[in-house]
């Protein structure tokens, strides 16, 4: 199988590329706007896991990026079996202090590019005919499908959080968009899964090591490699959506009812991250 992973040069995208090569022996088409780092990642994964890798530089925040990437895949003869829509950006900013360029970048990358890539590659997958051998193949205990799409949302999709207002809104779009399309693609034997994790255990929030360990122990936060392992299993089993962590899952319905005083307090605490 050939997997296309966006945002593959670092972070969670790199984790997806690594897991697909290591655990599922997928060939990889890696896409990122970090050209030098991407080339090194592609070379390292090919050498380590014996899979074919292709590095493709692209700025997916451009308005025609999705069409250009799809056209290039067709031209080069790449048949995509797995699409991982992972590329994204994150920043804290008071909305009235956020530049138009930043707003447009996030909306384009998280909304338009995800929607277009899903549309273009899902249509290809719906037309594909599996060989007899492919149809007999089982992945994670389930029969292989014509294709798989994994979109990355966030628990913030349910939150009204100052400072990340545009990010929250785009993640809410991805979540509802993906779940809605699941009903359209399932009869076509094409899978789509949306992941909505809470905090991912990185150094983003500057937590002390003991607090990071506590967050992971309580399943409020999840290590990136564990998130990716879980997400791929959910994808191959064609689960519609998933929020890792029992406490996160339990608290999701409550997030939309967060009291105003708590959000004002959060805004005050988050000012150190706003820039």
Explained architecture:
The protein has 275 residues and is of the alpha/beta class. It has a single domain, classed as NAD(P)-binding Rossmann-like Domain (Rossmann fold, 3-Layer(aba) Sandwich). The protein is built from ten helices and eleven strands. A seven-stranded parallel sheet has the order 3-2-1-4-7-8-11, sandwiched between helices. It has a two-stranded antiparallel ribbon with strand order 5-6. The protein has a two-stranded parallel sheet with strand order 9-10. Helix 1 (11-24) links the parallel strand 1 (2-6) and strand 2 (27-32). The protein is globular. The model is unreliable at 203-207 and 214-220 (pLDDT under 50).
Features:
275 residues; alpha/beta; Rossmann fold; seven-stranded parallel beta sheet
Topology overview:
Blueprint: E1 2-6, H1 11-24, E2 27-32, H2 35-49, E3 53-57, H3 65-76, E4 82-85, H4 100-127, H5 132-136, E5 138-139, E6 142-143, E7 147-152, H6 165-185, E8 190-195, E9 199-200, H7 209-217, E10 221-222, H8 224-236, E11 241-242, H9 246-255, H10 260-270
Radius of gyration: 19 Å
In spatial order, strands of the major sheet run 3-2-1-4-7-8-11
The number of helical elements comes to 10
Question: What percent strand?
Answer: 15-25%
Mean residue pLDDT = 88
CATH hierarchy: architecture: 3-Layer(aba) Sandwich
| Outline | globular
In total, the number of strands is: 11
Structural class: alpha/beta
What is CATH's topology name? Rossmann fold
Name the poorly predicted regions. 203-207, 214-220
The major β-sheet equals: 7 strands, parallel
The tally of domains stands at 1
Q: How helical, in percent, are the residues?
A: 40-55%
Overall CATH class: Alpha Beta
Distance between the termini: 42 Å
